[in-house]
Amino acid sequence: MKRLVVICLMAVVSLTAFAQNRQGQSSLGFNVGYGFDTENATLGVDYRYCVTDEFRLGPSITHMVKSNGLKGWMLDMNAHYIVRLSDMFGFYPLGGLSLSFWDAGKHLDWTRFGANIGLGGEVYATSEITVGLEVKYNIVKDFDQAMFAVRVGYCF
To answer: Is the CA virtual torsion 35, 38, 44, 49 positive or negative?
Structure first.
């Protein structure tokens, strides 16, 4: 009986959700996450634009919340190659460039240029809302680190 209920619920959800990655579509998202080496919580905003059904560009800005006297900002431009596994779920490898601004207090500031490489996944919860998880490695001199973030986006 439980199996039948679960199958019926999945069928209903799959009828209302669909892939939101079509050429020309955009999304605006908010994310929260964590940088492992610097031990900073992160808060970010991003915009994603689908150049084709499979390829999108995603500029973002992320604030590294102060931890152990270190805080910063990251400006990223990542490219995603979207692999749709169903109308409700997709994943994407990502790669891109990063510009970060770090502040350790007492006039100890650094600006670093770097790169990102990673993987993300997203669930198309409704026709306008996506929920996802992204893991990336940010390659930046003196500040290399693995990062993860949970994202909620609005598609239009």
So the answer is: negative
pTM of the model: 0.80
Question: Tens digit of pLDDT for each residue in 15-62?
Answer: 444 456 788 899 999 999 999 998 999 999 999 999 999 999 999 999
**Domains in the chain, ordered, with CATH?**
2-155 (2.40.160.20)
- Residue 112 to residues 2, 21, 22, 32, 41, Cα–Cα distance (Å): 54, 32, 34, 22, 19
